[in-house]
Each structure stands twice: as C-alpha cells, then as structure tokens.
Design brief:
about 325 residues, alpha/beta, 6-stranded mixed sheet, 8 helices, about 20% strand, globular
C-alpha cells in the first residue's frame, strides 16, 4: 500500500506539509518583524529543491567506471567488462519520463560489455508494469548475455492481495524477465567460459536485514556445484547481505548490489541512508574481496538530488 501511494505522498509532504511546518516554526522562533520573510525563504528553498530534484536530478544519468583487481581472476578474463544497472523502477518512467528507459538501454549497449547484469527492482508494485516496456528492455545485448536477480519490489510484497495472488503475480514477474531475454538467476549460477578458463556468475535471491523484506536468499544453494577455487561474481540485491552472509559463507570475490538508491539525496558525498546501511553506494573492500553498490537507475519516487541515476562498468583485472 505504501509503495502505491509513495509518489503523491512525497509531493504532498515536500510541497505542502514541510513548508507549512517550517512556516509555523518561523512564526514561533523568528522575531515578529522577520518571521514572514524567513518563512517565505524556507518555503522557496524547499519548493526549489523538490522541483529541481524531480525535473532535473531524476533525469540525470552517469556512467561510472570501476576496476576490480584480483589475483584469482583467470588470465583469459583480464579486461572482462561487466555493466551493472539496478533499481530501474520502470513504472515511474512513464509520461514525460518515458524516454529515460530508452536512453538507459542505449547507454548500456554503448558500453559494448561482455556481460550485462541487473541487480533487482525492475517493477514498482505489479508485474503488468513490465509488459509495456518489454520491447525496450529486450534490446539489451552483450556477448555473454544479460543476467538478473529479483529485488524486494519484484516479489509482490507491496501488493494488496492474498498470498495466492501474490505468488501468481511473482511468477508473472519471473516470466516477464525471461520473455525479455534476461537470464534470471534464483539462487542459481552459470559458468562463463573463455578458452580453457571460466568464471561463475551467481544470482542470489533477495535477503534483507529488515524482516519485512523477502529473505529467500541461500548462499549454499546459489553456489551449488561451484569449486572453492572458482572466481565468482555474486549478484545480491540488498548490500546488507554481504556482511551477514556472503563474506562468512562463501568465497565470492566480487559482489554486485543495489537497493539503497544512494538515498536519492547526497550532500558532499554523504546521504542519510548511511544511518541504515553500512555499505550504501560505491565500492567497498574486505581484504581482496569487493562489494559494488549501485545507486540505481531510476526510483519509485521520481526525485534525485546530488545522487544521479547511474550505470556502472566494472572491468576485471588479474594481478600481474
């Protein structure tokens, strides 16, 4: 229910409620002859930020380059390029924002990646949201394919219906991913070969530290049949799973996540989302292992300020 009304709730809060609260605070705290001017200034600033974040910030897109160096990487994969995108929330890319998804697809394809990965949250609430945009997403292509996992929004957890219908809708979402040409990994892995060398792309289902989030991720099942000496690229929507399960339970050298959106707001490189997540944007290391957290491509609420949507290009390098 919250997800369905998130957009009107945000704009009511940003354009009406917050300015009213600030006006009352100014009336109580600012000297009588100045409080109206202070209230007007605060209201103007809030309106400007909300409107800028919606009409400008939400439409910004950056391509970020990341290099991951690891001695375990097979030599045939030195220079291998993976393009990651996450948290598309394509139902928000409608109306005058409809062109944003086509731009993103064109930008991803322009990277000429060896592999494309999507790390969850394609829809906002319902699987039907994918139908009208399937033809655009089907245009994604890479030498070794397009791989994906589900995010919390893709599991029907925000739908107002019974458990049977939720499961049916979740299966429709899974089917939509596959019809779009994505290899959807549900606690599964695939082997990618180059000459006599290989790496593993593993897709773990969502696991969130917040209990209301889906907790279907299973490290052991995801890496079933994978050798302890293999080079593993792990996909997991929620970055909190890295500390909780991935680091202690497996050897995956590189983990790719999303989910946080980088808070959709950042000031001097910091966002309030840091209060909830230890790893919330960019790259993090534990010894020779790396976590890459994407700030996302889109958003449930079409607003970004100081935290543009992004596509991440990860280049793998072996130590010389």
């Amino acid at each position: 229910m919250i997800a369905r009304f998130a957009i009107p709730f945000f704009f009511i809060m940003g354009l009406v409620v917050v300015p009213l609260v600030l006006t009352l605070l100014c009336r109580w705290l600012v000297p009588r002859k100045h409080w109206k001017k202070a209230a007007f200034t605060c209201t103007f600033i809030i309106w400007a930020l909300v409107l800028y974040g919606h009409f400008v910030g939400y439409r910004q897109l950056v391509v970020r380059q990341v290099e991951f160096v690891n001695a375990d990487l097979p030599s045939a994969f030195d220079g291998y390029r993976i393009v990651q995108f996450s948290d598309a929330h394509i139902a928000t890319m409608t109306g005058y924002n409809e062109w944003l998804l086509k731009r993103a697809v064109d930008s991803i394809n322009a990277q000429h990646a060896d592999m494309i990965v999507f790390t969850g949250d394609m829809q906002n609430v319902y699987p039907q949201e994918l139908t009208s945009r399937a033809s655009v997403l089907r245009q994604l292509h890479a030498k070794d394919g397009v791989y994906a996992i589900l995010g919390n929004h893709d599991y029907a957890v925000y739908q107002s219906c019974d458990s049977v219908e939720k499961e049916r809708n979740c299966q429709q979402t899974i089917a939509a991913f596959r019809q779009m040409g994505f290899t959807l990994l549900l606690n599964e892995n695939r082997i990618i070969c180059r000459d006599s060398d290989s790496i593993v792309i593993a897709g773990m289902e969502n696991w969130g530290k917040v209990k209301r989030m889906p907790r279907k991720g299973d490290v052991k099942k995801t890496l079933e049949g994978v050798s302890d000496s293999a080079f593993v690229v792990m996909l997991q929507h929620d970055p909190s799973c890295w500390d909780e399960h991935i680091l202690p339970e497996c050897q995956a050298q590189l983990t790719l996540s999303g989910h946080t959106h980088g808070g959709q707001f950042a000031l001097f490189g910091w966002s309030p989302v840091a209060f909830n997540y230890k790893e919330w944007a960019g790259t993090y290391y534990h010894g020779n292992r790396m976590l890459q957290v994407s700030t996302g491509l889109g958003a449930l609420i079409p607003f970004r300020l100081g935290q543009p949507g992004e596509i991440v290009v990860i280049t793998l390098r072996g130590k010389k």
